[in-house]
Design a protein that fits this description.
Layout: H1 2-14, H2 21-34, H3 39-50, H4 57-67, H5 103-116, H6 119-134, H7 144-155, H8 157-170, H9 178-211, H10 213-220, H11 235-262, H12 270-277, E1 298-304, H13 310-322, E2 329-335, E3 339-341, H14 343-347, H15 352-362, H16 374-385, E4 393-398, H17 410-419, E5 422-427, H18 441-445, E6 450-453, H19 457-464
Parallel strand pairs: 1-2, 1-4, 4-5, 5-6
Antiparallel strand pairs: 2-3
Helix pairs in contact: 1-4, 2-3, 4-10, 5-6, 6-7, 6-9, 7-9, 8-9, 9-10, 11-13, 16-17
Length: about 475
């Protein structure tokens, strides 16, 4: 058991969860006290000892269900219990989809079970749907997502949701009030999510039985939200990023404030130390320091919002403005081949998401053809706003430095570096891609105080922590 638990903890670490040695010891001690007979309790204990935040629960759940999947012939891909006796009821949990049901009959039973909220029957019918529609074959090197797609396409969750809403509307004397309709839709969505979860779990159990937990864990592993690549995120991953950025902003704001609060000690104040030492017989028990006036940095963000890096710019601007209380002033400029200041759009809105939508709609960033032209944008920035850059200003340039073979105007960045406190460049591409094709990342990097690969929230967080 300890070997399996050790492999499980290793899989959690591979998936991005930071599990310390002391937490691993706590988990082993807790398991020795409760045993493994009660699977739900076993899972809860491991979650309580190994998971630090609810944001990591989905990853923990996936790894747990893989390493401690239910085993037995009923979960074989070949389905050895494929022909249960005809006397067995549909809700008994022994259906697996090869008991003579047609496609239409299975979908009708699913509709009735979902409408009634019968979770046990839904779980049973999910197994039947996998057996009928997934087309799983032993030893076939296909990921679980493929089998899930095949099953859900036949089950037709959207069609089931529509039928359930029609039934809910027809149950009343007239049209449903807006609140009742929304509550009904939310309830139906919850039941359909349960069905999808049961189908995923059934596919995962059968894959584990066929390939083993290690191979399945590698196949099904998903990156943590903070490790998702900005430029290649799917729609669901972008939604997870949006959810993850809000707790990150609170964490960063408190971290920056604490660092500034504890970093106020200046050089030793010798006279004050000697004066206060008189109450201790001349022993300098309490050294005193000069307290310099704390100053918050000013930030200027210059962001490329062309299609290739738009998501990266969006999350960076959102993060910077969410912690703007830690800076004396934040000014934002966006560009494609033209450049425009959009600070007022953020200051006039309490919702950063709305402000970003307004930026996309109202910012004048097209000069000629709407293709990235860093050289022209930087030169216009210098001509219009360059004199406003002071020794307190941190300039952050966001972009992939893919300049479509135009002039670089790297002299602007070098001049800003002599005038500003710092000039940093954040690039959302892997460093190995820099200087390939039309990228001139190294030319700009040589003119900055630092150029950083910044492909995900984790790397962005590390950079922002340097700004205090």
């Amino acid at each position: 058991m300890l070997d399996l638990l050790s492999e499980f903890i290793g899989a959690l670490r591979d998936a991005g969860l930071a599990v310390s040695l002391s937490e691993a010891v706590d988990a082993a001690e807790a398991v020795s006290q409760i045993g493994i007979e009660d699977r739900a309790l076993f899972k809860a204990v491991l979650g309580a000892t190994l998971v630090k935040s609810y944001a990591y629960w989905d990853t923990f759940d996936l790894v747990f269900e893989t390493y401690f999947a239910l085993r037995g012939p009923e979960f074989d891909i070949e389905g050895r219990d494929a022909n249960p006796p005809a006397s067995e009821s549909l809700g008994s949990g022994h259906h697996n989809g090869r008991c003579g049901l047609s496609h239409q009959e299975l979908n009708e039973l699913l509709y009735q079970a979902l409408l009634a909220g019968d979770a046990l029957t839904v779980s049973s019918l999910a197994r039947a749907a996998v057996s009928m529609f997934a087309g799983m074959e032993a030893g076939r090197p296909v990921g679980g997502t493929y089998y899930l797609f095949r099953t859900l396409r036949q089950v037709d969750l959207d069609g089931l949701a529509e039928r359930m809403m029609v039934t809910a509307r027809s149950a009343g004397d007239g049209p449903l009030p807006a609140l009742d309709e929304r509550l009904a839709a939310d309830e139906h969505r919850s039941r359909l999510d349960h069905l999808r979860h049961e189908i995923e779990a059934e596919i995962r159990r059968r894959l584990v039985g066929d390939r083993g937990p290690e191979a399945v864990a590698r196949t099904l592993r998903k990156p943590m939200p903070e490790d998702v690549d900005f430029m290649h995120a799917s729609r669901d991953e972008l939604a997870a990023l949006r959810r993850a950025i809000y707790p990150l902003t609170r964490k960063l704001a408190s971290c920056l404030a604490r660092r500034r609060r504890h970093g106020r000690h200046g050089p030793l104040d010798f006279r004050a130390t000697v004066r206060h030492s008189l109450s201790y017989g001349g022993v300098p028990v309490e050294p005193h320091f000069r307290r310099p006036t704390p100053s918050k940095p000013e930030i200027m963000v210059i962001a490329d919002i062309s299609g290739s890096v738009a998501a990266f710019a969006r999350f960076t601007l959102q993060l910077v403005y969410a912690i703007s209380s830690q800076f004396s002033r934040v000014r934002s400029f966006v560009f494609v081949d033209g450049i425009d200041e959009v600070t007022a759009l953020f200051e006039g809105s309490d919702d950063v998401g709305e402000a970003l939508a307004s930026v996309n709609a109202n910012a004048e960033v097209i000069w000629v053809d709407g293709h990235s032209n860093y050289g022209h944008a930087l030169q216009v920035f210098w001509d219009r706003w360059g004199p406003e850059v002071s020794a307190r200003t941190n300039v952050i340039i966001l972009g992939d430095a893919r300049n479509n073979y135009h002039s670089s105007s790297a002299w602007v960045v070098a001049t800003l570096r002599t005038q500003a406190k710092h000039v940093w460049w954040l690039n959302p591409e892997p460093r190995s891609y820099w200087d390939t094709g039309d990228s001139i990342a190294s030319e700009y990097a040589a003119a900055c105080d630092g150029a950083f690969e910044c492909r995900n929230l984790r790397q962005l967080e590390r950079f922002v922590e340097q700004l205090a």
